[in-house]
Design goal:
Elements lengths: L4 E4 L6 E4 L3 H25 L8 H10 L1 H4 L2 E6 L1 E4 H4 L2 H8 L3 E7 L8 E7 L1 H8 L4 H4 L3 E20 L2 E12 L2 H6 L5 E11 L2 E4 L10 H6 L2 E2 L2
Length: 227
């Protein structure tokens, strides 16, 4: 007959501990593991890091958006351009840096008969532009030059209303090259407000104007200096 207890012998009174069959122990262990797994599954599916629109989440999502990562380009127009375009601050800066030269010239149809300027790249401007764009691009009369990228600074406030929210944040320009450094200051920060929307998988930056809330492109267009 197999004993069903373990006796601990000693000077003290005997203590009897009932031994459980091995099969019962294994069954209890499997039940415990199943319970732990079920709880972990419920917790993992009940919420995600994107369910709560915190400043940390907004600080991750805004810089990752395509509109934020897109480089700022400056379109340098050479040849005949109207006076209203030539008097822009950008052309004044490029001329001051010695990258372009300009001389007064009569406008050609269909441009109204007002003052125009014949804009040319100087030798220094040619060398500078060639290092920034392809040879084909540099030979065009309208040259698109990547000059700066955006740098995220901080989230300054979040306003929520149901599944929609407005996030206010600050950012600044980081020049990509010497032309960018001449046109964009890295010392100025800007304040923008972008819309967020809560979907089934969590909060996202508003990418389309079809939804309420300001898109990131609109936020950059309406940016204001914060200092």
């Amino acid at each position: 007959m197999r004993p069903n207890c373990i006796q601990l012998m000693g000077e003290q009174p005997k203590w009897i501990l009932r031994a459980q069959p091995p099969s019962a122990v294994r069954c209890a262990q499997r039940g415990l593991l199943f319970t732990i797994g079920a709880i972990a599954l419920i917790v993992s599916t009940a919420c995600s890091p994107r369910d709560v629109l915190s400043r940390r989440l907004a600080s991750d999502l805004i810089p990752a958006a395509p509109a934020f990562q897109a480089h700022q380009k400056f379109t340098l127009q050479t040849g005949l351009i109207p006076n209203k375009e030539f008097i822009s601050p950008e052309y004044a800066i490029l001329q001051h840096q010695g990258w372009i030269s300009a001389s007064s010239a009569p406008c050609k149809p269909p441009t109204p008969p007002t003052q125009c300027w014949d804009v040319l790249l100087t030798p220094s401007g040619v060398e500078t532009v060639r290092t920034l764009v392809s040879a084909d691009e540099s030979s065009k009369p309208s040259i698109a030059i990547p000059v700066a990228k955006r740098e995220f600074v901080a989230v300054s406030g979040i306003s929520r209303q149901g599944s929609l929210a407005d996030v206010e944040f600050t950012w600044k320009w980081t020049p990509l090259n010497e032309i960018g450094a001449a046109l964009y200051s890295s010392d100025v920060t800007y304040r923008s407000i972008v819309g967020f929307r809560n979907y089934d998988d969590g909060w996202r930056v508003v990418q389309s104007a079809a939804h309420s809330g300001q898109t990131l492109d609109e936020a950059f267009k309406n940016a204001e200096p914060s200092q």
